């Protein structure tokens, strides 16, 4: 079976800057990969490559054995949590429905029943049926993000890409989103590429980490990647990785948001 | 009353009703997308430039060319707005600049025009006597084209308008649709300028859709309601304007405004009911909802 994602010798340049190069990565079906790194290290750009929105400067990329293409139905996408306008004229089920066929041309008059069923299934998967008729703008950030997950799952993807889906959610809702994604990949063997600032919410479920800093990167299990030596090399400064119970804290990486979230973590524990 | 009934027998009144009906249909179909894209100001800008185009055509080529002038002015400026993309801050200032320039140009053309004065003011405040059979044909063609393009592009257009980030990720050509939508909007605005006048095009393209958005969050229901509201406003406005012999635009705008007020009242009653139904989640959920929406209303909407 083809890997869900296969990057070999992949390189991406933006103007004079090389975001990353020599990237070899295979993501197996059902595998959960977290992509970490400071702002501007090319995490979101990597997702854009996988979505077919951006071409590599060198190397090759394949999704289930074929080149990425826009609107690939086997690829689901969860965007950054961003509050929808309170007056957005959509209900929860409309938002999810757009994820199913919003990119199709034509009036879309056929197959309405089947469409309604699929939308309802996706809503049920994230326990969002009860507010699926409410205007999306009236929902809380956590409820909206649950709809976003349903919107990504409604096309029954075998690869799920998530771009900072936890941003601006509190810890309980972060856990809920991570659990939904984890359940999906266990039940349906969906591969997950999860871009995040914060490792700890996904640490219990993550298989491997891709850590990108300034064109350098490390790939491996959390134990392999999250060491003081590795991160000191990546950040080219003294960085200390500390384990506190089931959490990993990074001290000294000025740009690393892992560092910034320390007070929050301390407050919760 | 008798006067109104007598006037309704006249051919030009019937033509006006047909023209108004087509205009209201297009305005109602496009309105929810205009509101969803936050383009109310762009519509106003487009209508002023359409006025300038119509006034220029009137000056240079006479009354027969007004429709074409209005269409060219509206579509040109709509293309500029569409190509600007949807970055709200920059877009609004560019619209303001072009709007005032177009209005100034239009006033100049009108001052230089020495023909019938009814022709002059018609473009600003609307006129129905000016519609003849030739206009009806071009109106019908425009209407068919707009409806046809909408039928093919509606789903991606809705996606790109309301959820631009996701739409782009799913491969929807967001920028191309932005330009296509601007052209549809320009064509509709140009019709509106000739019927209700440049000053009040908003009362058809914005008010009915804004009213519908207050009472439903379903895109389909919102579109149907917007069409119904726009039809009531235009057809009602034309009929009411007959006996007093006044321009139709105050009546159209007045009816649309009353519909909007009623929808606001109905809508806020509904929101209250929904709020009282869903107090079930924990207190923290409720606080986070209110802080979310407070946040959302302060923040400019993300646009492609």
Strand content of chain A: 15-25%
Q: What is the typical, i.e. mean, pLDDT of chain A? A: 86
What's the total count of β strands of chain A?
11
Q: Give the N-terminus to C-terminus distance of chain A in angstroms.
A: 43 Å
CATH topology of chain B: ABC transporter involved in vitamin B12 uptake, BtuC
Number of helices of chain A: 9
Query: Which structural class should the secondary elements of chain B be placed in?
Result: mainly alpha
User: Judging by the overall fold, what is the CATH architecture of chain B?
Assistant: Orthogonal Bundle
- Give the CATH topology of the largest domain in chain A: Rossmann fold
Described by the principal axes of the CA atoms, the overall outline of chain B is globular
**What proportion of the residues of chain A is helical, as a percent range?**
25-40%
Given the C-alpha coordinates, what overall shape of chain A results? globular
Specify the CATH class of chain B.
Answer: Mainly Alpha
How many separate domains make up the residues of chain B? 1
The CATH first-level class of the largest domain in chain A comes to: Alpha Beta
Characterise the protein shown here.
The complex is a heterodimer of chains A (269) and B (304). Chain A has nine helices and eleven strands. With 269 residues, chain A is α/β, with parallel strands linked by helices. Chain A folds into two domains: 1-74 and 157-221, Rossmann fold, CATH 3.40.50; 83-156, no CATH class. In chain A, the strands form three sheets. A six-stranded mixed β-sheet of chain A has the order 5-6-7-3-8-9, sandwiched between helices. In chain A, strands 2-1-4 form a three-stranded antiparallel β-sheet, covered by helices on one side. Chain A has a two-stranded antiparallel ribbon with strand order 10-11. In chain A, helix 5 links the parallel strand 6 and strand 7 (191-195). Chain A is globular, with a radius of gyration of 19 Å. Chain B is mainly α and 304 residues long. Helix content of chain B is 81%, strand content 0%. Chain B is globular. The chains are: A alpha/beta (269), B mainly alpha (304). Chain A binds chain B through residues 51-53, 69-72, 77, 79-80, 82-91, 94-95, 98-99, 101-108, 131, 134-142, 151, 170, and chain B through 32, 35-36, 151-156, 158-159, 162-163, 165-172, 212-213, 216-219, 222, 271, 274, 278, 285, 288-289, 292-293, 295-297, 299, 301-302.
């Amino acid at each position: 079976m083809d890997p869900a994602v296969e990057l070999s010798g992949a390189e991406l340049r933006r103007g004079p800057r090389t975001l990353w190069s020599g990237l070899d990565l295979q993501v197996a079906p059902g595998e959960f990969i977290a992509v970490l790194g400071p702002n501007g290290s090319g995490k979101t750009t990597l997702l854009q490559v996988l979505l077919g929105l951006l071409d590599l400067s060198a190397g090759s990329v394949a999704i289930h054995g074929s080149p990425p293409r826009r609107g690939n139905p086997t690829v689901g996408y969860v965007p950054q949590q961003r509050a929808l306008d309170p007056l957005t004229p959509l209900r929860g089920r409309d938002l999810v429905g757009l994820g199913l066929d919003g990119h199709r041309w034509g009036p879309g008059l056929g197959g309405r029943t089947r469409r309604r069923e699929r939308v309802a299934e996706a809503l049920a998967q994230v326990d969002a049926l009860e507010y699926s008729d409410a205007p999306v703008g009236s929902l809380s950030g956590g409820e909206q993000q649950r709809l976003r997950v349903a919107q990504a799952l409604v096309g029954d993807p075998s690869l799920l890409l998530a771009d900072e889906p936890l941003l601006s959610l509190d810890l309980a809702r972060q856990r809920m989103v991570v659990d939904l994604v984890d359940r999906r990949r266990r039940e349906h063997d969906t591969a997950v590429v999860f871009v995040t600032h914060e490792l700890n919410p996904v640490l219990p479920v993550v298989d491997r980490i891709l850590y990108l800093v300034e064109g350098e990167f490390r790939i491996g299990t959390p134990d392999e990647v999250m060491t003081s030596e590795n991160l000191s090399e990546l950040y080219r400064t003294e960085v200390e990785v500390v384990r506190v119970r089931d959490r990993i804290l990074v001290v000294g990486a000025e740009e690393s948001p892992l560092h910034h979230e320390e007070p929050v973590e301390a407050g919760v524990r | 009353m008798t006067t109104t009934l007598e006037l309704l027998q006249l051919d030009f009144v019937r033509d006006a009703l047909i023209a108004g009906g087509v205009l209201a249909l297009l305005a109602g179909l496009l309105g929810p997308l205009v509101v969803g894209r936050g383009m109310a100001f762009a519509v106003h800008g487009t209508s002023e430039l359409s006025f300038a185009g119509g006034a220029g055509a009137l000056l240079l080529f006479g009354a027969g060319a007004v429709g074409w002038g209005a269409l060219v002015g509206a579509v040109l400026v709509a293309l500029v707005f569409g190509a600007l993309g949807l970055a709200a801050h920059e877009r609004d200032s560019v619209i303001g600049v072009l709007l005032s320039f177009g209005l100034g140009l239009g006033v100049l053309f009108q001052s230089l025009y020495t023909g019938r004065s009814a022709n002059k003011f018609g473009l600003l405040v609307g006129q129905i006597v000016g519609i003849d059979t030739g206009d009806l044909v071009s109106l019908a063609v425009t209407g068919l084209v707009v409806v046809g393009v909408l039928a093919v592009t509606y789903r991606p257009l809705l996606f790109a308008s309301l959820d631009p980030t996701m739409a782009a990720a799913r491969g929807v050509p967001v920028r191309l649709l932005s330009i296509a939508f601007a052209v549809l909007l320009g064509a509709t605005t140009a019709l509106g300028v000739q019927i209700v006048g440049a000053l009040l095009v908003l009362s058809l393209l914005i008010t009915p859709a804004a009213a519908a958005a207050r009472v439903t969050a379903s895109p389909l229901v919102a579109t149907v309601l917007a069409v119904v509201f726009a039809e009531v406003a235009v057809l009602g406005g034309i009929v009411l304007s007959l006996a007093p012999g006044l321009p139709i635009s105050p009546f159209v705008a007045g009816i649309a405004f009353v519909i909007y007020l009623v929808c606001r009242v109905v809508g806020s009653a509904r929101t209250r009911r929904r709020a009282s139904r869903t107090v079930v989640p924990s207190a923290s959920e409720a606080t986070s909802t209110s802080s979310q929406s407070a946040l959302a209303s302060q923040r400019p909407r993300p646009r492609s």
